[in-house]
């Protein structure tokens, strides 16, 4: 189903699809949100695992991005009453509905990724070399 960016009628009221898409883009905008969502689409992660999986992200930024995703209902955070405390992050059902979009992006990248100029991979803190 193709949606136009023009105003559409839903339940008798006009919807500005441009404005609605801006709201949708805002949910996933942020330097790291898409990368976090991509990882969480694969499996449940603990905080430290996420930090290690994303080269260049700082602890502060990962915390901030996860809090925003949780506030927007895209990520759930589970705290286990253990010593030491264990915290796990996973995508919510609402975020899992973005799966086809992520698959489409992966297919697009496989088709066209080689034609995109490479940029420096590191952002934020410098990744440790092993």
From TrEMBL:
Pfam family, one: HxlR
Coiled coil (residue ranges): none
GO MF entries: DNA binding
Gene3D superfamilies: Winged helix-like DNA-binding domain superfamily/Winged helix DNA-binding domain
Keyword terms of this UniProt record: DNA-binding, Transcription, Transcription regulation
Residue ranges constituting the HTH hxlR-type domain according to the UniProt record: 19-117
Protein name per UniProt: Putative HTH-type transcriptional regulator YtcD
């Amino acid at each position: 189903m193709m949606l136009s960016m023009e105003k559409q009628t839903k339940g008798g009221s006009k919807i500005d699809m441009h404005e609605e898409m801006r709201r949708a883009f805002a949910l996933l905008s942020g330097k790291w949100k898409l990368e976090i969502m991509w990882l969480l689409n694969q499996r449940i992660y603990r905080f430290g695992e996420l930090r290690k999986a994303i080269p260049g992200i700082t602890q502060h930024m990962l915390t901030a991005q996860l809090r925003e995703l949780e506030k927007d209902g895209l990520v759930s955070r589970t705290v286990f009453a253990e010593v030491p405390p264990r915290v796990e992050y996973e995508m919510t059902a609402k975020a899992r509905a973005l799966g086809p979009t992520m698959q489409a992006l992966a297919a697009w990248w496989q088709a066209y990724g080689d034609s995109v100029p490479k940029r420096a991979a590191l952002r934020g803190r410098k990744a440790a070399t092993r």
